[in-house]
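Render this sequence as a predicted structure.
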Amino acid sequence: MKTKGTIVCVGRLYADIVMTGLKAMPQIGREHYADAVVVTPGGGALISAAFLRSLGRKVELAATLGTDPVSCTIEPLLRKSGIGLSLLERFDGGPQLTVALAVGDDRSFVTHRAGPAVPESLAGHLRRGGVRHLHVAELATLLDARWLIDVARECAITISLDVAWDDAAIRLPGALALARAVDLLIPNAPEAAALTGLPIDRPDLLLQMLATSGPTVVLKQGRQGAIWSDGMRQFASKALATDVVDATGAGDAFAAGFIDAWIDGASPATCLARATACGAFAVSNVGGARTLPTRTEILDLETQVAVRPFAGAQAD
């Protein structure tokens, strides 16, 4: 079991209402019916933490939770997760809520935020030692708490960022520079294009902008797989053929798998394969972290992932 050092996942904690089995996205003025619905704790930080915990890592969730009835409903599920909750702080109000609509292999979200993004105790916790890696699950959270990068550097803690789409945050002046200040950046293709202003269909240019003299970058491309770059080398993985039940949290599961291998110094191929395996497992189940794999299941699944050197189109 992998337990050396703690991984802290920081980000907003939501109550997710996930509706599956929709034939199409709703149209204004019409009522649509889902085949199934689940209510579960969600948010990128929680989902990544849950997958890291299932892979055998010691994980703490740094988040805040409201006092409203919906937040109180998901609290018992959090307590049963096995994730460390010493950094979980309560705030008066709420809820933080996401409604996820799953259609085929894609999904849409409607989200309401409430309360602070980062618990007050986090800085002191990082400075006390024992934390190996800090994973920030949303660019919006990093923009709210830019000091996280300085504290991580001060404490010799590596830091990763999963961008997570936020139309306002991603276009703010300084967002690109902040994203490039981390050690490991994990955007999807639309997020990378919005951050850089470059074409979404030119992954070579996106990687050149993000990774050159910057962080290690993993560009998530959904069904097309993912691409790793350190600014000099690039490797690409193919997505596994999987029956998609619910894509909610797939990117967060992917990030967890990558981090699990990356912090141990694994090869790019191993990092991509483990990340791809976690993403494939996530989309095969409803709710981002309701059903979790064992480490053995992921290690077996990653052997099926094809990784190759990436030879993208060259910049003009």
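Summary. The two ends are 47 Å apart (CA to CA). Residues 96 and 114 are 5 Å apart (CA to CA).
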